[in-house]
Amino acid sequence: MIVHMLRFSFKETATEEEREHVLAVMRRTASVESVSFSTVGQSLDDTDGFTHAYCVGIADLPALRRYMHDPVHLTGDPEIMPHLARLAIGPDLSDDMTPTLAREILALHDEKVALYPEWAAELGPLLAA
């Protein structure tokens, strides 16, 4: 199982309606076939300024590839990203002890970046340093 986590905060200008819409879109993405379990909601750790979190459990690398390229995921991100101020990816974790797993996951991410450069360009400025 690969557990993928995002922590994020909304732009101060995001209305309550926009925030609820973003969370609904995230829940829709988290319910695609390749996801085994999920949760989307408030972050309980406020030490880093992130107010919300997104977590999905994905069975394996083939399921992760399907998740990353699922049409629901691809159409949801443009609805989400304009309303976010900051985003942190991870920490991700897995019960799969394959030593190369992190590299293989990164390769899937790099593949998506190459296929969807406009997505990568919109994501880049949101990533927390």
From TrEMBL:
Lineage: Bacteria, Bacillati, Actinomycetota, Actinomycetes, Kitasatosporales
Gene3D superfamilies: 3.30.70.100
SMART domains: Dabb
Name of the protein described by the UniProt record: Stress-response A/B barrel domain-containing protein
Membrane-crossing segments per the record: none
Domain Stress-response A/B barrel, residue spans: 2-93
Highest rank taxon of the organism: Bacteria
Cited Pfam families: Dabb
